[in-house]
Amino acid sequence: MMAKNDIDSRRWIDRETHRHWLAAEGLDLLEFYRASCLPGGGFGPLDGNRELASQTADTLITARMTHCYALATIQGVPGAATLAHHGVVALAGLLRDDQHDGWFATAPHDGFDEAKQCYIHVFVALGAASAVRAQIEGARALLDDVLAVLERYFWSEAEQAYVESWSRDWSELADYRGANANMHATEMCLELADVLDDRVWHKRALAITHRLIHRVAADHDWRVVEHFDANWRILPDYNADQPDDGFKPFGVTPGHGCEWARLLLHLEAGLGLEAPDWLADDARQLFDKAMNESWEADGQPGMVYTVDWRGTPSSTRRRHWTHAEAAAAAAALADRTSEARFEIWYRRLWDFMRDVYIDDERGSWLQELNAELGPDPHEGHLKPDLYHAYQATLLPRLPLTPTLALAVERL
């Protein structure tokens, strides 16, 4: 193994050229997604030609855009504050349920899904928190509103985790618990701990992580279990007929193993001397398992989307976000451990993303590819998401703590 000084001198992130390249790529992404701003309020998905694929505002996209453009505002990107404010206004009005409280998944329209999803509310809170740090008008009121809803309906003190979804009028709670919503809730908690300067959010993130990673994932050979019933019994066959589902696919999602690994390291750094020893160890195990079972698992380049409980590829799609999260996790692990193998992964992943996903002709990144790295026939024409790619250009340049909304002030 290399000595720490040798690793530091060879890491890409320590090289000015690489840091400039990441910054330039991030700015290109921010410019591309200005086109997702809807005149009627909020943000919508773009297609491959940088045209709106829908005129209906999407709450998840709007919250993520608000988060990203708030971070860009803090960095000093001209025009970003206008877009962040556009998102705050839509989240506070167009996308909010004035009758029953909470947030819809999209702006209301004929036949829309009226359910109240934890996943959506968590991103509304993340976007609002970043906007608070960026001093965007209306952000603090939005944050207070969404946190009140999350506390009243989604956080379960008895379960020490977030529940999944409710009916529109909050009369019926779904008989399902999900790791994905709780993973992003952990991300939210980490940012709230910094933005609000309140360590209670660190404790909540630790409780979620202890349940889903240190107990359940550890008991399943470091595969992240995604689906549970209301009593936290595992649902191993959940969505067995939908291995490609974008949010709740069957089996194991290695990209989430990488994402969790990074979040564990942020949590450890945020807790400081109060951090349990297992956080860093669990992060290593998650990343190693995810990459060992996903990378070229079907003989084709890149990471497969999902695997089954034996580690056999289930969905061989190549989604951009899994690679972006793996690169960010590799950077975090290289920073935390100084182990050269994580730097090797970091370079391999960025080489792959640069060669495969970045669209030199039309801008942004290709997001949904098949195993042969061609456009996925169902979603390959869409470029709806700034969040994962943009954060991948930021996270390697930042310390493990504080979280993005504070750390980007130093760039």
UniProtKB/TrEMBL annotation:
Gene Ontology BP term (one): carbohydrate metabolic process
Record has Isomerase as a keyword: yes
Alphabetized UniProt keyword annotations: Isomerase
GO molecular function: isomerase activity
Pfam families: GlcNAc_2-epim
Source superkingdom: Bacteria
Database matches in SUPFAM superfamilies: Six-hairpin glycosidases (SSF48208)
Family of this protein: Belongs to the N-acylglucosamine 2-epimerase family.
Name of protein: N-acylglucosamine 2-epimerase
UniProt organism field: Salinisphaera hydrothermalis (strain C41B8)
Taxonomic lineage from the root: Bacteria, Pseudomonadati, Pseudomonadota, Gammaproteobacteria, Salinisphaerales
